[in-house]
Amino acid sequence: MKLCMIGTGYVGLVSGVCFSDLGNDVICIDKDDNKINNLKKGKIPIYEPGLEELVKKNLKNNRLNFSTNLNEAVRKSDIIFICVGTPTKKK
């Protein structure tokens, strides 16, 4: 299955990596070029035990990709997850 994770924070990155480790083709999208470039090198911006190893493994196996091209990723995907910050309600 081809999945798109929009957002590479705690939810999007961890979920995307786990889905890729289950054998899915995953594209993780973010608007931050620097973050995407680091992720492509296997450098993760958060700490989650075992995540860095899973990122590197699934990048190597071509099941995990990172991009800033939202339109292309959505077009190529069967399922799209929106994993971006939800604004809190103003009081």
Give the helices and strands, then pairings.
Layout (H helix, E strand, L loop, with lengths): L1 E5 L3 H12 L3 E5 L3 H8 L10 H10 L3 E4 L2 H7 L2 E4 L9
Parallel strand pairs: 1-2, 1-4, 2-3
Helix pairs in contact: 1-3
Description of the structure:
- The protein is an alpha/beta fold and 91 residues long.
- It has a single domain (2-82), classed as NAD(P)-binding Rossmann-like Domain (Rossmann fold, 3-Layer(aba) Sandwich), CATH 3.40.50.
- The protein contains 4 helices and 4 strands; from the N terminus they run E-H-E-H-H-E-H-E.
- It has helices at residues 10-21, 33-40, 51-60, 70-76; strands at 2-6, 25-29, 64-67, 79-82.
- Strands 3-2-1-4 form a 4-stranded parallel beta sheet, sandwiched between helices.
- Helix 1 packs across helix 3.
- It is globular.
- The model has no long low-confidence stretch (mean pLDDT 95).
In short:
With 91 residues, this protein is an alpha/beta fold. It has helices at residues 10-21, 33-40, 51-60, 70-76, and strands at 2-6, 25-29, 64-67, 79-82.
Attribute tags:
4 helices, 4-stranded parallel sheet, Rossmann fold, 91 residues, single chain, alpha/beta
